[in-house]
Amino acid sequence: MLGPLPRGTICLLAVSIVLCSVGLRPDATGSAAAELSPDDDDYGEDGGDDSSSFSFAFPETRPRGLVFGFYDDTCPDAEEIVSSTVRKLYHADPNVAAALVRLFFHDCFIHGCDASVLLDDGADGRRSERDAGPNQSLRGFDAIEAIKRRVEAKCPGTVSCADILALAARDSLVLVGGPTYPVLTGRRDSDQSFFNDVGGNIPAPNATYAMTLEAFARRGFTDRETVALLGAHSIGKVRCRFFRDRIYNFAGTGAPDDSIDPDMVGEMRAVCGGDGDGDGAAPMEMVYYRQGREVGFGAHYYAELLEGRGILRADQQLTAGSTVRWVRVYASGARGEKVFREDFAHAMVKLSALAPLTGSDGQVRISCSKRVDDNT
Ligand SMILES: *[C@@H]1O[C@H](CO)[C@@H](O)[C@H](O)[C@H]1NC(C)=O
Ligand SMILES: CC(=O)N[C@H]1CO[C@H](CO)[C@@H](O)[C@@H]1O
Question: Is the C-beta atom of 19 inside 6 A of ligand 1?
């Protein structure tokens, strides 16, 4: 497993030559990807012929105001405090990793990566994103507050919650065996949350193929990047209510979704009992299984989809249209795994760059759930 990204120096040097290589298989090349790519139509949007390096030359991956090591002078330990705290939280509860990745995704998808998802309702009754339907099952808020407290103790009022969340998501992925990637910093926190924008903009767990692609395309992601990002569903847990209809009464048929493998229906029913509309005994582990052995983050998710073992409808639907070709690429053994990890890392870099607030816009919160003007 790759260690956390060496901070600062490597990337700062590399920035001057635009490419920031983070040692993701420097010897392996885009050639594995190229060979495996069924076609090239949406391939390599951000540097496909050199997929072993990160290119920040494109505005969509390096917005104005974000830099490497934004806190090098003002809070040199910031990134280390985030990563060590994430590690500590993860050892206490491994579920925190998937929770933080998902929280970051929800943050970035609504008004950019501005920590807007972390705000509580305002005293004046303003409603927060975290109260909106798709956000009800979000977790990880306490973890972010715990990290923030440690950062505040060292550098009061300096490091934004938006940056903490971006760094914590990357550090979480590394802990579960995912690829590392460079995280630019310099984000500021929004002074509002966007409850009304959540509906329709967060891709639904039961979305069709077309709906999922559309939701990601609205945020600038290609089909390939969309398939790669959904690989985050190789970790985490999912509540019964998000897939119950698929195993008992799909689309009012009184029968399971016939895209699910029959054995899988049995496994899902074992977790998610048929009685009433309860939420089942326990959330189903989102971990997909390979030869009966639990595995962490990785492309085994795609192999499971090819066998009709997607837990959420949105997952399984990736095999229902032309995106199946990327599912097949990623599922194709060791080389597929490498292509997936690179694609995923690139897509995370792009996600991390969605519409940040920078410069003097927004604010730096003290507590991540409260606007600065609400603290007093
Ligand atoms: C997804 O589930 C919601 C809530 O149960 C339902 O209203 C919606 O129609 C479903 N969407 C699809 C595409 O089936
Ligand atoms: C727990 C929670 O925040 N529930 C709210 C989720 O959002 C819906 C509206 O989409 C509210 O009605 C719930 O109260």
Answer: no
- CA–CA separation, 263 and 244 (whole Å): 16
Q: Among 43-52, 109-118, 202-211, where is mean pLDDT lowest?
A: 43-52
Judged by average pLDDT, the poorest of 142-146, 185-189, 345-349, 367-371 is 367-371
Consult the annotation and say whether 125 binds a ligand.
no
pLDDT digits 0-9 by tens, 214-235: 999 999 999 999 999 999 999 8
Residue 211: which of 105, 313, 130 has the closest Cα?
313
Structure tokens of 108? 């970035």
CA of 134 to the centre of ligand 2 (A): 9
Q: Tell me the pLDDT tens digit for each residue of 245-303.
A: 999 999 999 999 999 999 999 988 888 876 544 555 556 666 665 444 566 899 999 99
Give me the domain span that covers residue 233.
209-349
> Could you please report the per-residue DSSP string of 301-360?
HHHHHHTT--SSHHHHGGGSSTTHHHHHHHTSHHHHHHHHHHHHHHHHHHHHTSS-B-TT
Which CATH number is 130's domain given? Answer: 1.10.520.10
Mean pLDDT over the full length of the chain: 81
Same domain? 129 vs 186: yes
pTM tops 0.85: no
Do 97 and 116 have their domain in common? yes
Whether 111 is catalytic: no
Residue 203 annotated as lining a ligand binding site: yes
Identify which ligand lies nearest to the alpha carbon of 128: 2
Atom of ligand 2 nearest to the CA of 130: 3
Number of domains composing the chain: 2
If you take atom 3 of ligand 2, which residue's CA is the nearest one? 131
Nearest CA residue ID for atom 13, ligand 1: 207
Whether 206 lines ligand 1, by a CB cut-off of 6 Å, is yes
In a domain, 175, yes or no: yes
Is 37 among the domain residues?
Answer: no
| 55 marked ligand binding residue | no
